[in-house]
Specification:
194 residues, mainly alpha, Tetracycline Repressor, domain 2, 9 helices, 0% strand
Length: 194
């Protein structure tokens, strides 16, 4: 007797498997590889399940975007409380965030945001949470110092995004210690030692 072609999973597990397959496809081949056929092949799912769970490829892409953001948001408490700034920086500058696979996923997703309205909406949902957490961490760390926490958070995010791109494009020129130095160069004048 031959094994069935497709595994039986709960709907939640199947949706999660499709998202993970989508992320693997993005990491390996970028946005042009993000096809229903490639995702179904990577997940062992039928084509119809993408539509069933996500309404189509764009819905799955938005779910992949949310999943890519998840590690960044894991440092935020369930109640939305921002972590202490040093802890947040340790996570944002960790090996986990700077893995080549993760960086490839981000490059693919960022390229698509400019032309995909649904993905742009998902980006804004995720970014708002991310920005709020970083801003709150900066404000709490600053204490009595007068700082423009929201603007400093925007600057930090832009710097991190640029560092991630540089790690993708020229990994021999950017390392985690250099990235940390760049972040400290931005924050120390405003916050003192971080």
């Amino acid at each position: 007797m031959t094994a069935p072609k497709y595994k039986r999973l709960t709907p939640e597990d199947r949706a999660a498997e499709l998202v993970q397959a989508g992320l693997r496809v993005l990491a390996k081949g970028g946005i042009t590889a993000f096809t229903i056929d490639n995702i179904c092949k990577a997940s062992g799912a039928s084509r119809g399940l993408v539509g069933h769970h996500f309404g189509g490829k764009d819905g799955l892409l938005a779910a992949c975007y949310a999943a890519a953001y998840a590690p960044l948001l894991q440092v935020i408490a369930k109640d939305g409380t921002a972590p202490p700034l040093p802890d947040l920086l340790d996570e944002l500058l960790s090996d986990r965030q700077f893995r080549r696979e993760s960086l490839n996923i981000w490059l693919a997703l960022w390229a698509e945001i400019g032309v995909n309205e649904g993905l742009r909406a998902e980006h804004l949902r995720q970014y708002d949470r991310y920005h709020a957490a970083i801003s709150a961490s900066i404000a709490a760390f600053a204490g009595e110092r007068q700082v423009a926490a929201e603007m400093l958070a925007s600057s930090l995010i832009a710097l991190l995004d640029g560092l991630w791109v540089e790690m993708c494009i020229a990994p021999s020129r950017m390392s985690l210690p250099r990235a940390r130095q760049a972040v400290e160069a931005l924050l120390v004048p405003h916050l003192g030692r971080v």
